[in-house]
Amino acid sequence: MSTTLLGQMEASMKTLIEGMTTTSGYNFNWTTVNNADYAQCDLDGGHCAYVELDPEEINIDSDGGANANSYLNIDTFKITSFGRLSSESDNPVFDGNEDLNKQLDDLKKLFGTYYNLNGEIGTIQYKRAVRIKEPAGDIFIPKKLESYWDVQYAQDRTSPLTVGY
User: Fold this and answer.
1) pLDDT (0 to 100) of residue 38
2) Phi/psi of residue 59, nearest 5 degrees
3) CA distances (Å), origin 28, targets 51, 135, 164
4) Low-confidence ranges of the chain (pLDDT < 50)
5) What is the chain written as a DSSP string?
């Protein structure tokens, strides 16, 4: 487990995504997280994703704010998710849209349920999503979904490895 708060957030998001299965009420089984190489993802078993900070952390302390012992931060994370169409399609770009919609529903359900990242740190809020068409024109992986999530948390000023209060 990471010893940094940012690392803990990323690890928690990864673990939560890997735990999504159809038997627990999600649209898909989510298998590989944080490996962007399609060839190494278990796409026969489910859907894949990777989590990354995008692009930076923002501090939202007000000048002379009430809590001088903590930084109040917002980190935006981008979750890129993808799956493979179950069969070849004449129109894969548009046929993949329903899959992307279901991926987004799964992520919204996950972070709506675990809005504090499983009690570890901060609160997570859905911000937006965008469909990304693959330039190679892959008939089985025609698009990816990029969704953006803000995590707001307090961080101790003198001990940055500690959640602030």
Assistant:
1) 74
2) -95, 135
3) 18, 25, 36
4) none
5) --SSHHHHHHHHHHHHHHT--GGGT-SS-EEEES---GGGS-TTT-EEEEEEEEEEEEE-PPTT-S-TTEEEEEEEEEEEEE---SS--SSHHHHTHHHHHHHHHHHHHHHHHSTTTTTTSSEEEEEEEEEEE-TT--SSS-EEEEEEEEEEEEEESS-TTSB--
Rounded Cα–Cα distance for residues 41 and 108 (Å): 22
pLDDT of residue 2: 67
pLDDT digit string, tens, across residues 73-108:
999 999 999 988 877 878 887 888 988 999 999 999
Task: Tell the CATH superfamily of the 5-156 domain.
Answer: Phage minor tail protein U (3.30.70.1700)
